[in-house]
């Protein structure tokens, strides 16, 4: 069974204080690992897709990296508008449904 | 930018009522999905469709049903709502080639 575990559950940072969010996963065969941002009361917003170990992607203050067992979302010099819940999800190569298996997310708060 | 819409955004309804949650997308995506998300919990796949007249059940058992008569439209129906159906329902879609899913804003359903 595919599983995704995210840590920490919640993280409070000062504006400008860089940090990393962790996503550990187990999947029979990884088709892709996805990062989303979700604001309260809204649907998840797509950020990145990673396909193979060693791959990295960047967008503004965010950088996602992937190894064979985990992914990190690095946040550099965050601003209050980066506050949100960040979700990690995996898609397996095999299986009947090609939906995503999600983690519970990391609730990030950036204080001014 | 994805264009996927869900209505209503919020719904409070009594036990035993029949309800239909609407989802539509203007991108011509073949694949569409319904996820259920309880507060602070993971998204769980409940239904998916690969195209017109294709519907399948997802990983999480649900008493809801879906239909796909038109490419752009993927409604979810509950024949008799119960308090246990209280949750947020999120619709998503993707192209046949790209792996990332794009989400709508969600419908928050409360059954009293």
Structural class of chain B: mainly beta
Assess the beta-strand content of chain B as a share of residues: over 45%
User: Helix coverage percent of residues of chain B?
Assistant: under 10%
Rg of Cα set of chain B: 13 Å
Elements of chain A, N to C (H/E): EEEEEEEEEEE
Largest interface: A-B, 25 and 26 residues
N-to-C order of helices and strands of chain B: EEEEEEEEEEE
Strand runs of chain B, count:
11
Total strand segments of chain A: 11
What is the chains' assembly state? heterodimer
The percent range for strand residues of chain A is over 45%
Mean pLDDT of chain A: 94
Largest sheet of chain B: 7 strands, mixed
Distance between the termini of chain B: 36 Å
**Range of helix content of chain A:** under 10%
What does this structure look like?
The complex is a heterodimer of chains A (112) and B (112). With 112 residues, chain A is mainly β. In chain A, the strands form two sheets. In chain A, strands 2, 4, 5, 9, 10 and 11 form a six-stranded mixed β-sheet that branches. Chain B is mostly beta strands and 112 residues long. In chain B, 0% of the residues lie in helices and 49% in strands. In chain B, strands 2, 4, 5, 6, 9, 10 and 11 form a seven-stranded mixed β-sheet that branches. In chain B, strands 1-3-8-7 form a four-stranded antiparallel β-sheet, with no helix packed on it. Chain B is globular. Chain B starts with a strand and ends with a strand. The relative contact order of chain B is 0.34. The mean pLDDT of chain B is 93. The interface between A and B is medium-sized, with 25 and 26 residues.
């Amino acid at each position: 069974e595919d599983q995704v575990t995210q840590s920490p559950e919640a993280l409070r940072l000062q504006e400008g204080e860089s940090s990393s969010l962790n996503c550990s996963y187990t999947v029979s065969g990884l088709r892709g690992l996805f990062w989303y941002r979700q604001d309260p009361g809204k649907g998840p917003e797509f950020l990145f897709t990673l396909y193979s170990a060693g791959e990295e992607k960047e967008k503004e203050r965010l950088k996602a990296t992937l190894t064979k067992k985990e992914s990190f979302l690095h946040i550099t010099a965050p601003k209050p508008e980066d506050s949100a819940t960040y979700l990690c999800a995996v898609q397996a190569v095999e299986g009947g449904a090609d939906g995503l298996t999600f983690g519970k997310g990391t609730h990030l708060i950036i204080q001014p | 930018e994805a264009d996927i819409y869900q209505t209503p955004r919020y719904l409070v309804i009594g036990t035993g009522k029949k309800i239909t949650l609407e989802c539509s997308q203007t991108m011509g995506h073949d694949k569409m999905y319904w996820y259920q998300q309880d507060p602070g919990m993971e998204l769980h796949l409940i239904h998916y469709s690969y195209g017109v007249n294709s519907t399948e059940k997802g990983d999480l058992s649900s008493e809801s049903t879906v239909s796909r008569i038109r490419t752009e439209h993927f409604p979810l129906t509950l024949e008799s709502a119960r308090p246990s159906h209280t949750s947020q329902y999120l619709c998503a879609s993707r192209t046949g080639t790209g792996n990332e899913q794009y989400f709508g804003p969600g419908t928050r359903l409360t059954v009293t």
